[in-house]
Amino acid sequence: MRKNKRPLAPHEALSRAMKLCSREEKCSFDIRQKLYQWGVPSETHDEIINQLIDDKFLSDERFVRYFVRDKFRFNKWGKIKIEYLLKQKNLPGALISQALFEEIPEENYNGTLKEILEAKYAQTNETDPVKLKAKLVRFAASRGFESGKVFEEVNKIIQ
Questions:
Q1: Are residues 51 and 76 in the same domain?
Q2: Cβ neighbours around 149 below 10 Å, total
Q3: How far apart are CA 135 and CA 6, in angstroms?
Q4: pLDDT digit string (tens) for 116-152?
């Protein structure tokens, strides 16, 4: 609950949530957390969220698609990291899998992996090939790329 402030009434919370959702894409998990922070009675949370969905302010599918595109394109994250973060928001696995498949073309995915590994390779001063390989693999894994693809691409770059 908000410190030293009265809890928001459901109609006030709905208005504030609409404003929040109109500024940036949110999922139902994010809004539920906000409602809790605002001190809104928990028995009204579902009603408020359903109203936001009905009025098209809130869509978990739209959020997942946006999140996948954004994190891949701008942050250059792999599918594992994106999926993990979306699951933290209690979003359905089927929705996540579908968005990962549809929003990230395989050729772009492989190209991005190659691009970030080549950039890391260029800025590395490591001369020992074993340490270099380990460094590149750790880097790509921390970005959420699958280990099989990472090892394949690292081997191409080092040779």
A1: no
A2: 16
A3: 52
A4: 999 999 999 988 999 999 999 999 999 999 999 999 9
